[in-house]
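Co-fold these.
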Amino acid sequence: MHDVVIAGAGPVGLFLACELRLADISVLVLEQAEDPHSPLKQVPFGMRGLSVPTVEALYRRGLLDDLTAPQRMKNALGHGGASTAHWMQQPRRPGGHFAGIQFYEDNIDTAKWPYRLQSPAGASMATTMEHIESVLAVRAHAMGVEIMRGYSVEGLDQSDSGVTIRAGGETFHGRWLVGCDGGRSIVRKAGGVEFVGTEPEFTGYSVEVEMADPDKLVPGRHYTPTGMYTYQQPGTVAMVDFDGGAFHRTRPITLEHVQSVLRHISGADVTVTTLKLATTWTDRAFQATTYRNGRVLLAGDAAHIHSPLGGQGLNLGLGDAMNLGWKLAATIRGDAPEGLLDSYCTERYPLGSQILDWSRAQVAVMRPSRSSRALEAIMRDLIETRDGATYFAERVWGLSLRYDLGGCHPLVGRSAPDFELADGTRLGERLRNGKGLLLGFDPAGPLQALASGWSGGVSYVASDARDKLGLSAVLVRPDGIVAWACEVAPDQEELAQAASRYFIKA
Ligand SMILES: Cc1cc2nc3c(=O)[nH]c(=O)nc-3n(C[C@H](O)[C@H](O)[C@H](O)COP(=O)(O)OP(=O)(O)OC[C@H]3O[C@@H](n4cnc5c(N)ncnc54)[C@H](O)[C@@H]3O)c2cc1C
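Predicted complex below.
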């Protein structure tokens, strides 16, 4: 029997497996696909934008260097080469978009983010699904995660003490089961969790084609009276056809069909001569009503799906894994405070909901209607203002992430600043062991005694820092989120109370 069985070796399942192994939990991953490779996981359709919280999570686990091998990635804006340079040091360039409407980095008011420090993990970036999965799989193997490919989870039964899982004609037992098996999750269905949301308005197409007359299409993104398309030379096209999602997964994607949709949306009489690669998607936006039912948990697309507009799904899923791993590990060890595991859903569900709405709002701008063109014009005006660009950057880059953890300091619930300590190390590096961290900037302070004896092991570091941001001490959870912070002499009772939400005294 394994402590945890994970269904699905996608990026979320693999990252969660690494998080659990970091805490010495035994993990089995069951993956339906025999072969992890697919052309859809490679450039161009496999490109995935990673938001700042995702990059920070990978950095805090020592995975960022593996991911940023320069030949294999480019930054989120399409510039080649390593992209870990801080956003504040970049020349003028687009910072991202909302429904295709760009905001620019030099229009962003970074003074609104007083707690962000320069960091190797300070910028969003992009990679391919193939690359991130392979980096995570290598790490998972090295950490002793057992991955069984060719095993499709078909059903489950849970009891008070564990879960029995049927996969590939065999039976497996885990004390817990986590469904990371994507949008059509069997674990979610068999685990009895409802999935609710809004039905699709369109079928989206990502296709790679050869055309007899490519000059008939203008490169770039275009809203037309019948939909939207983006064209990148030599032959990469994305299209949105407002058919109510009717085509998606109902028929084979043929050359004739692609040509007909492209003509219909672009209004250009193009001739497609070769269909090299094609996939469809929709704006169906659904979320599990809970991320936990007994010993069955959900993470990633298994818990929430939405259109890829704005590229948030992978980020949301990896954030789920970072939030869940240490909480589930503490629960298995028996040293989790009451309610810690349930805080996974309490913290992550509202965030998932927000992201689903973010994708829905983009659909409202994209509809082929006069009112949507009017909305687009207003959004363009707003995004060009300094406040507008800053707002969109916060949302797109993930900087607005803040859990409602109580506490009166504005940093509580946010990602910890990457303090550079007196010995040259950074806070992010100190989190690689997956433990909590109590950082006191006054070595003579009384915090060390408090830190010792907390369950799961909270590292204590007393050090000066290059920029303390006016703080005297900070307690950081294993997932890099600030649990408590103070600017004056630490109130030990307040600290102990904040810590008691995440750790128990041994
Ligand atoms: C065109 C497109 C562009 C996108 N761009 C972005 C982007 O830029 N940024 C971003 O953040 N997100 C983006 N996304 C979304 C992102 O790809 C997903 O949110 C992400 O892959 C979810 O990861 P996951 O591990 O939860 O699920 P998946 O990647 O779907 O992995 C699930 C795994 O479970 C396996 N599995 C399924 N069923 C079973 C079963 N019964 N038993 C065992 N194994 C099973 C599957 O084979 C798969 O390996 C995009 C999506 C699309 C379609």
